[in-house]
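Field: COMPLEX_INPUT
Field: COMPONENT_COUNT = two
Field: RESIDUE_TOTAL = 227
Field: MODE = joint
Values follow.
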Amino acid sequence: MVTGSSAPDGFAEDVRRYVFATAAATGEVPQPPAIAQALARDVEEVRDALKRLAAGKVLILAPNDGNIWAANPFCAVPSGFRVTSEGKTYWGICIWDSLGISAALGSDAVIDAPCGDCGEPMRLEVRGSKLARGEGVVHFAVPAHRWWDNIGFT
Amino acid sequence: MLLFRDEEHVDRWRKARDLPRGGLMTPDQAERLARGWYGRKLAPDWRRHTLEETEALLAEVGLTGPFWNLRGT
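Field: COMPLEX_OUTPUT
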């Protein structure tokens, strides 16, 4: 069910704002050690705050090491979905998030992604907050009410 | 959510995985959905969308029907 407003505590809010501002400014999603250093807090405090943010569906943690996998729409690791905007490179975990990067940044973007079936390269372009070039079709595998059950597959 | 060259490629992909056809949309619809969903993600006072807001966004983009029903079980 996609519902409910998260209400993170004050420190988690600080972490959220730092993570998203850094991802937007640099294209790189900061991980706990860098966040702790920037906010002058212990790494464990940061990891706890990230767990609370993940529980509130604000971001997604990697399953094993507690690092950030995606501060949606920004993916922390290179993926097949490359977004180029204002000279910087970003990564999305899917085509929706890739388009969401342009929306979140409020800037034009070129999105390069493979066809999910044959892998042939495809390109979408956003200019002036609208799709300026598009091709193909977008497929959502998971019904809307289960988006959060299996976010990596959607 | 994946991008495909056309519906034939979607069907080939899903049949190879024994998956039912999911929801299809145009890249323009996907852009508008992404804009509505993520457009304020960097705002300091960002908050998650409510169920009602998300339903309104889906309807605005033209995504209606059982597949896009958020109140399913």
